[in-house]
Specification:
Layout lengths: L17 H18 L15 H12 L3 H13 L8 H10 L4 H10 L3 H14 L7 E4 L2 E4 L4 H16 L1
Antiparallel strand pairs: 1-2
Helix pairs in contact: 2-3, 2-4, 3-4, 4-5
Length: 165
């Protein structure tokens, strides 16, 4: 679900700044290594806004390629340091996953999915109160941040037991 930690016009962070450098060294890189995830702090500075990428995801959903697009956008940003705030980069990603880049560009430029994305962002912010990533909601339980698989299984089991009780 779309969520922006720093929506426009709030300035986004710069990867060369202390906050991201320290956070990635202390938390993200050790966790990624432990989990076997290939990830690096993107060098795009400042970090891009993601509203266009979210509109692209809605286009991809309409064409049965949401998972492929989402995965490609994450890989482009967190492995290849590509600027996912750029329509040209997003259209290239769309082409890579089998979407028509001309139709993709047209939909983004015309704002075809803008209202849908805005509504999803409102749901995330106002209705669900999401203020951190990741946020996982399982039944009545809300988890902010990363949790081990076993902790997630326990929450799922507890929620299932409460539903059948």
């Amino acid at each position: 679900m779309p969520f922006e930690l720093r929506p426009a016009p709030t300035p986004t962070l710069k990867p060369e700044g202390d906050y991201l450098q320290i956070a990635w060294k202390k938390s993200i890189y050790p966790l990624a290594e432990k989990m076997g995830v290939d990830i690096k702090l993107p060098s795009v500075s400042p970090q891009p806004y993601t509203h266009l990428a979210f509109q692209g995801l809605e286009f991809a959903k309409d064409h049965g390629k949401a998972d492929e697009y989402n995965d490609a956008v994450f890989r482009a940003f967190f492995q290849q340091s590509r600027d996912i705030g750029s329509l040209a980069v997003l259209a290239d990603i769309a082409r890579e996953v089998g979407l028509d880049p001309v139709q993709f560009n047209s939909a983004i430029e015309q704002g075809t999915h803008r209202d849908r994305v805005d509504e999803l962002l409102r749901v995330a912010n106002r209705h669900l109160g999401i203020d951190a990533v990741p946020t996982i909601i399982i039944g009545h339980t809300r988890l902010n941040g990363l949790y081990p698989a076993e902790a997630l299984r326990q929450v799922i089991d507890r929620e299932l037991q409460e539903r059948t009780a």
